[in-house]
Structures are given as structure tokens and as C-alpha cells.
């Protein structure tokens, strides 16, 4: 009788891929986690309890068939594991790297709740897909039949690219419009290489292009082409622009030189370090932390990216101001731990009151305490009067989150309805907007969210678009 490959969680402990030492990894922008070896991946996948109600799957936005591909991995059936994994996820190798598994699948693992340590789902997912690329199991996009219908997608981030993949596989002609010179959105220019090395993203971009997706890059809708022209050129349009408008930072002196936006800082670093682009603002030091006292304001994953990027750029000191405590911060606890190992100092329960100097030389900091819960159930921060102090700073990075741009105004478009938060109003599931044949997906609908949710929205929307054009084709054929 064959040996049982699963249910090993009682005898086999959780073992994550080896993490490079803090001193070593803080000197470069390479990913910090090593790959699993084949036997280790099988062993860790075999810890899955194969429970009847898989909470890992139900808490995954894509509802990935996690227990199935874990079992197939444990049995050594890796090609089948990849087929199951990619059936529900357009970019499993990316999700395996950057999803906050501690808040989603792994955080809801049944054996974690029983005290045995969660299955390392993200690491196995990454291993499966990297093996698939190495072995040639990732097939080029080859539609069984080409169709004449076309879809325009505005935005080459994860939501737009996921929709492009589904539509192209169905034979639809797809054109993706994006304001940047490379596709990928925040995966390319927002997320640092130590979390997501750029060849991983470029590999998928190349697969889409080779499969027939047309990319119109350096194309800013509203300036280089009108929204009306895009609608005229296609049978349907998907808005997948994401949200790039940074939240402002009030207080005296907030307009001083040396106070910069997180997106500008991260984009400059990714361009210069990961792509070798000529970035004058990076070379001049305007968007470079080298030899500076850096203060990052915010507590989300973007703030963590700025903190850890500053360390790698050779900052003199790196501190994070966050108005709540560690337990109430929105960012991944894993990222906080990584940042602390690399030398970042967290100043919990602090917020900026103002800024000194121009160029900036310091942040006036006020201490906070947590008061009564607000409408969301989180305790509201309250100022402790008379607790102000000054934190030296040569570079202040605003990482307070993102808001949507005013698309109806930018695109001179009537009828594109938005919510009171400025996000595009779209139908749940399909992404349909008030404009006929126009859909919206990802952060421009949800507000700033996770890559995995954008992928889910893009896939669902593509299915809705296919239903629309199939219906139109059936009517035309009658």
C-alpha cells in the first residue's frame, strides 16, 4: 500500500523557504526568500489536512483550489498541480510572492488554528509555477479561433492584464492602453524588486504580447487619445487604471523640498535599480535615500516598501511614524518583521504635526494614544497634548494611501458615474458601468486594494464582456 502523502502536520513542522540574512539582503534588491527544493516542497505540501471545508480556499479572493494542488504537489504530480493552480489564477507566481497570505489563505488554515503552524501555501504556489516555467508547461496563448470583436483595456496593471489574458484566449482582439512605458502597473513600478523581481513581471507581459495582445504604451488617455476614440474603436472597454493620486499631508511646512510621494520614490528606485533607466531625480538625490535621515509616514504595505527600499539605498537612518500601534496597523506583520530585521525603527502611536526647514530638516511629531473604537471597530488615535518632539529628517516620504483621479473630468466624459469616494461606480461581479459597453475593475472600483483582488475582478469582468459580445454576435446572426 502506498504511503499516505498527506496529513503530515502532526509529525512535520512548518518550514518556510530559507530567508537571506538581514545584512546580506539589505545591500541589494533581489528577492529575500530562496526557492524550495523539490523534496521540501512535497514535504510541506503534505502537511495539508485536506479538510472538508477548506477555509484557505474560501478566504482566497480567487477561490484557488489550494487543497487540490497541495495534494498533487505532495504526490509529485507537479504539472497537474500547475494546471489546477493556473485554472483560477492568471498570475500564480506573482500571488505566491506578494499576496499577504498571513491575512488570507494561510491565516485561515485549519491546522494553524489547531496550533500546528499553517501550511506554507504561498511558497508552494511560487514553487509550482516557477517549475512550470522551467519545464515548459506554461503554454503560449493560442486561441482555437480568432474573432473579429475587439476590447480596449485602459490600464496595464494586474486587473487589466488578467482580463486581457482571458479575452485573448477566447480569440478576442485586445488592445491595452497605458500611460507608462512598460506594462505591469504597480507590479512593475510600485513593488520593489526584493518582493517581486521584475523579470517575473516582464515574462508575463511578453507572454501576453506574443499571444496577440496589442500594447499601446506611453499613451495617456485624455491627452494622447480620447476616451471617446477608444470607445469608438472597440466593442467594449474595460477601465483598469488603478488609483495613483496620493493622499495629501497637511501641517505647517508640508510643501517643503524633500517631502515626496511614495509612488514617486518607489518608481524612481525601480526604474534606476531594476531597469537601469536614466532617472535624473534619483541621480540628483531628490528621490534617493542615500546618506539621509529618512522618515516614512504611514503603516501600510506601501510604507513598508519605502522603508525597506531606503535601507537598501544606504540611508543613514530609517524611521516609520504610524499613528496607531503595531496590532492595529494595516500592513503585513511579516513585512514589519522583515523591516525591523533590516534596521528600520518603528515609532508607534506617533503622527506628524508639521515640518521644519526648506529643504526639510525635521518632522514635528506628536504622540498619540488609542481611544474609543470608530465606526470600523478600530480604536481611534487621540493626540497627547504637550508631547511634541522633533525627529531629524532629510527625506520625508508620504505613504498615506492612494485615491482615484477624477476620470470623468480628465477624460471629458459624461455619464461615467462615480461614488462619493471618487471611484468608478460599477456592478458587482461584472464590472459594468452606467455607460453601455464600458466596464471597470480593480482599484478604480474598490479603492486601493490587493493585487489578488484586481486579478479576480479582471477575470470576472472578462467573462461578462464575453457574454456581452457573444450575445451581440447571436443577435447579429439572426
TrEMBL record:
Lineage: superkingdom: Bacteria
Keywords: 4Fe-4S, Iron, Iron-sulfur, Metal-binding, Oxidoreductase
UniProt keyword Oxidoreductase, yes or no: yes
Ranges for domain Dihydroprymidine dehydrogenase: 25-136
Membrane spanning stretches: none
UniProt cross-references to Gene3D superfamilies, sorted A to Z: Alpha-helical ferredoxin, FAD/NAD(P)-binding domain, NAD(P)-binding Rossmann-like Domain
Coiled coil start-end: none
Occurrences of domain FAD/NAD(P)-binding (ranges): 151-458
Cleaved signal peptide residues: none
Gene Ontology molecular-function annotations: 4 iron, 4 sulfur cluster binding; metal ion binding; oxidoreductase activity
PANTHER family: GLUTAMATE SYNTHASE [NADPH] SMALL CHAIN, GLUTAMATE SYNTHASE [NADPH] SMALL CHAIN-RELATED
Protein name, as recorded: Dihydropyrimidine dehydrogenase subunit A
Lineage, broadest ranks: Bacteria, Pseudomonadati, Pseudomonadota, Alphaproteobacteria, Rhodobacterales
Amino acid at each position: 500500500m502506498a504511503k499516505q502523502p498527506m496529513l503530515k502536520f502532526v509529525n512535520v513542522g512548518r518550514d518556510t523557504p530559507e530567508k537571506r540574512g538581514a545584512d546580506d539582503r539589505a545591500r541589494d534588491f533581489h528577492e529575500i526568500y530562496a526557492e524550495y527544493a523539490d523534496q521540501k516542497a512535497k514535504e510541506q505540501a503534505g502537511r495539508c489536512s485536506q479538510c472538508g471545508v477548506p477555509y484557505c480556499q474560501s478566504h482566497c479572493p480567487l477561490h484557488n483550489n489550494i487543497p487540490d494542488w497541495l495534494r498533487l504537489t505532495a504526490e509529485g504530480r507537479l504539472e497537474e498541480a500547475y494546471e489546477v493552480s493556473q485554472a483560477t489564477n492568471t498570475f500564480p507566481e506573482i500571488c505566491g510572492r506578494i499576496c499577504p497570505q498571513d491575512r488570507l489563505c494561510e491565516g485561515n488554515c485549519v491546522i494553524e488554528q489547531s496550533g500546528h503552524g499553517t501550511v506554507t501555501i504561498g511558497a508552494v504556489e511560487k514553487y509550482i509555477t516557477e517549475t512550470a516555467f522551467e519545464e515548459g508547461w506554461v503554454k503560449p496563448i493560442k486561441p482555437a479561433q480568432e474573432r473579429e470583436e475587439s476590447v480596449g483595456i485602459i490600464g496595464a496593471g494586474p486587473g487589466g492584464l488578467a482580463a486581457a489574458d482571458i479575452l485573448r484566449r477566447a480569440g478576442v482582439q485586445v488592445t491595452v492602453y497605458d500611460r507608462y512605458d512598460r506594462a505591469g502597473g504597480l507590479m512593475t513600478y510600485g513593488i520593489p524588486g526584493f518582493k517581486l523581481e521584475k523579470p517575473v513581471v516582464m515574462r508575463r507581459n511578453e507572454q501576453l504580447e506574443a499571444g496577440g495582445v496589442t500594447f499601446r504604451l506611453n499613451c495617456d488617455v485624455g491627452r494622447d487619445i480620447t476616451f471617446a476614440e477608444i470607445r469608438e474603436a472597440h466593442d467594449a472597454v474595460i477601465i483598469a487604471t488603478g488609483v495613483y493620486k496620493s493622499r495629501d499631508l497637511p501641517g505647517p511646512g508640508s510643501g517643503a523640498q524633500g517631502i515626496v510621494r511614495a509612488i514617486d520614490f518607489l518608481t524612481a528606485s525601480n526604474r534606476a535599480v531594476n531597469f537601469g533607466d536614466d532617472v535624473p531625480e534619483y541621480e540628483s538625490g531628490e528621490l534617493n535615500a542615500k546618506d539621509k535621515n529618512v522618515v516614512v509616514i504611514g503603516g501600510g504595505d506601501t510604507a513598508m516598501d519605502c522603508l525597506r527600499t531606503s535601507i537598501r539605498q544606504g540611508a543613514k537612518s530609517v524611521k516609520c511614524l504610524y499613528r496607531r500601534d503595531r496590532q492595529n496597523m494595516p500592513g503585513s506583520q511579516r513585512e514589519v518583521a522583515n523591516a525591523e530585521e533590516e534596521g528600520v525603527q518603528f515609532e508607534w502611536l506617533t503622527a506628524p504635526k508639521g515640518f521644519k526647514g526648506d529643504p526639510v530638516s525635521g518632522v514635528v511629531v506628536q504622540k498619540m494614544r488609542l481611544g474609543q473604537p470608530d465606526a470600523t471597530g478600530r480604536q481611534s488615535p487621540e493626540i497627547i497634548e504637550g508631547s511634541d518632539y522633533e525627529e531629524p529628517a532629510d527625506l520625508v516620504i508620504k505613504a498615506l494611501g492612494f485615491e482615484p483621479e477624477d476620470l470623468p473630468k480628465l477624460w471629458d466624459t459624461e455619464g461615467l458615474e462615480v461614488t462619493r469616494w471618487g471611484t468608478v461606480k460599477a456592478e458587482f461581479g461584472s464590472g459594468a458601468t452606467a455607460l453601455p459597453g464600458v466596464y471597470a475593475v480593480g482599484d478604480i472600483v474598490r479603492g486601493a486594494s490587493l493585487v489578488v483582488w484586481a486579478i479576480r475582478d479582471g477575470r470576472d469582468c472578462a467573462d461578462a464582456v464575453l457574454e456581452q459580445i457573444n450575445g451581440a454576435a447571436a443577435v447579429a446572426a439572426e
